Input
Amino acid sequence: MPKRTIQSGNRSRWMRFLELLAIMAVTIPGAGHASTVAEMKDARRILIIAAPSRDDPNLAKQRQALAGWRQGAADRDLETIEVVGEAVSGSDDKGSALRQRYDLPPKTFSVILIGKDGHVALRSATPWPASQIESAIDAMPMRRAGQR
Output
């Protein structure tokens, strides 16, 4: 089988492509982001949605409330993490650890908003409209100071 080599003209295109991929990994939201709540501190706000099961009606309502607000969440550096039963999406944390750390009972629905500094800014046992989350974030000191 003949050995393939990259010709000089193609080499520079290939290098530019690799450089572009590296830039994208750093600048695109979600690409290369921190994978645990602790690693997100100082960089992201976090919305944790906890439900006892995937068929919880409050979970469906919360997802629906956030569905049209993706750009608003991105503009506010908001990462959404779901803890459904013990399964976690949006983070590499274990469900039991998140439930214990943030006092999220396994048999009830909960939503908490965590600021970039790690404090729990809001907590609710019912779904929040996106407008309420947006207002809460916009009132946070780091957001008001323009640090997003």
